[in-house]
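Exam review. A common question shows you a sequence with its structure tokens and asks you to describe the fold in words. Practice with the pair below. Do the first one on your own.
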Amino acid sequence: MGGCTWRWALRAGRLLPGAGGGRAPAVWRGGPGCAPAACAALSAGSASSSSGNEALRDKRARILSRGLPKQKPIDGVKQVVVVASGKGGVGKSTTAVNIALALAANDTTKEVGLLDADIYGPSIPKMMNLKGNPELTPKNLMRPLKNYGIACMSMGFLIEETAPVVWRGLMVMSAVEKLLRQVDWGQLDYLVIDMPPGTGDVQLSVSQTIPIAGAVIVSTPQDVALLDARKGAEMFRKVHVPVLGLVQNMSVFQCPKCKHETHIFGADGVRDLAETLGLDILGDIPLHVSIRETCDSGQPVVISQPQSDAAKAYLKIAMEISRRLPVLPA
């Protein structure tokens, strides 16, 4: 694509190959806190002098003493809420979109943003009915695209809709850093981050580099999904991110004709998991065709059908999230 923003984003992250060729940057695979030169010196073994080895040990100790990267707030953002799941396909992105809209609907004085951190499978552009490339500010920051009052940023704005992102972890992490740091969010009360599924590099990096007010774990009641949801909750605990609670998605299906209810994925699996982990259930979202249809059409149910039971479920969950967030000083 010919947009200057995409090329800018890639250059900023050192993602475009240089003039010398098209290979991806080399990735150092040495141990933590150890530079390639240091490890080369260590491997020399007896060839190194005792004084050289001592200096090397001192340098390594200084590097290790730095510890984890310091968390730095995102400019203009008061509170960050991440929506995550251990497993894909449980409706996490649909939940994140409707939670962001519900937070804004519950309190019209609040400004809400939505960040799509799923680099490989961005879905926010379609769900929020947004297309095009972000403009650049005079400070060379990307301006989020906006719809339904929500400021949105996604890798989907920077690549063609059908283009796959075939990148290694280092490139993905650089892209996430740019989406976090080089976006002009303005002044936001809440930034909702739609995390990719799993407990990998993106989740760890986001958790360690920005202060997160709370995490929301989304899962279906299915046993296989619950196994991964538990891992997601435990990961956030390990990195000291407060887990606000769990959302039980696709909890029940009601036949549109006879109104008979069927628990297709199980009845209370997420509730049982929440009890085991000592967490709260923020709410249940039914398995309803309107939720899928409205997101596919770019008109999420909270906006297009605000009086429906599905929309009310999201509004309730957003209210529970707001109640559990720390109170900020005036």
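Now try the second one, then compare your answer with the model answer below.
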Amino acid sequence: MAQKNFSTITELVLVGFSNHPQAEIPLFFLFSVVYLVNLFGNIALIILVAIDSCLQTPMYFFLCHLAFLNIFYTTTVVPKMLFNLLASKKVISYEFCLAQTYISLLMGAAECIILAIMALDRYMAICDPLRYLLIMNWSMCVQLILGAWTISFFASVVPLYFTILPLCGPYIVDHIFCEVPVLLHMFCADTSLQETMMVIGASGTLLLPFFLITLSYLRILVAVMRMHSTEGRKKAFSTCSSHLTVVTVYYGTGIFMYMRPKSLYSAEGDKLISLFYAVINPALNPLIYSLRNKEVNGALKRVLERWPVSQGK
């Protein structure tokens, strides 16, 4: 079904946390800090990779795309959420609600695929180190990233465009932002097709990448256990544990949100789940990847050591 003209709908009520008015001010300050950590951490990571040649490797190239995705995703969600925490009239325009729905679906699918690419990159680096740079050259890296964004677009945005239905009043979005599982409850017609499409799309962009990640890390685990060097094992586990932490949090919440029947919807519970993958996880990613990463810490130290010298010239 082609997308219809819904111009009669101008705005919707975005409930957010208005059911807990006493918590809105503390939540505003909390999420403001989280959002600033997200912006600062991810932008700093991108700049660090750009200016330090030691970090210009395939792994950090993919990590920069993940950082950009985190910034873009949360900027679509958090500023409006913060504004509504302070506003007396908690609304969202219909156009921006649709934009959030499309962007959240696209960014979610892209993150799943990029995380899978990062797992495959680690598999190649640890299990086939002699051919790693030959296979994971810059041409291959660019092709993988372009493929990730292209597949994400055609697996998420295009199906949604052709299956979206008119919304029924009252136009109340009992969530922190607009996304597909929530809008399913607001469609006027039968949503069986939309639910099926969501599960099929999630199978391709959630389950398939998750299967590839699991397979990659099983092979990595076997390879690491065969290593004779204790230092080599430590380095491999350190690199992989950060990625596995991000994967566990993101996939756990994403699979629950997008691969369950509509009957299991819970407004308050789903708000907390969405907070993890749309607000909290993007802020944690640069911390997880940098705090325990000797290469990032070393690059940061080198940049800070060069800073006074460049200032003195």
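Model answer, second protein: Residues 1-6 have pLDDT under 50 and may be disordered. Residues 302 and 308 are 11 Å apart (CA to CA). Full marks require stating both points clearly.
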